Amino acid sequence: MKLLLLLVVVLVGVWLWRSSRAHGPRRQGKAEPKQPVATPLDMVQCAHCGVHLPQSESHQGKLGRYCSADHLALAEH
Ligand SMILES: [Zn+2]
């Protein structure tokens, strides 16, 4: 009976240790990426044709952003 009690205590100890390890990094990961996860992709609208596209793929012009260099040229030249 003493052995069984010892086994239970060890198992509970291991379970607590594992759950505290599992929850620890998850809390840190949740607190860390506040900006990147909130806006994974900034969508912008072409000032010429109105199509939506990721900001990284857009062309910056003087009057706005465009879906392609062609529309930048058409709108600003
Ligand atoms: Zn366009």
How would you describe this protein?
The protein has helices at 2-31, 35-38, 69-76; strands at residues 43-45, 52-54, 59-60, 65-66. It is rod-shaped and about 90 Å long. It has 77 residues and is α+β, with helices and mostly antiparallel strands. The chain is 55% helix and 13% strand. The strands form two sheets. It has a two-stranded antiparallel sheet with strand order 1-2. The model has no long low-confidence stretch (mean pLDDT 85). Zinc ion binds at residues 46, 48-49, 51, 66-68, 71.
- In round numbers, the mean pLDDT is 85
Q: Given the C-alpha coordinates, what overall shape results?
A: rod-shaped
Give the strand line-up of the largest sheet: 1-2
Q: Tell me how many strands there are.
A: 4
Termini gap: 89 Å
Tell me the structural class: alpha+beta
Describe the sheet with the most strands. Answer: 2 strands, antiparallel
| Total helical segments | 3
Order of helices and strands: HHEEEEH
Low-pLDDT residue spans: none
Hetero groups: zinc ion
- Beta-strand content estimate: 5-15%
The residue fraction in helices comes out at: 40-55%
Rg is 27 Å
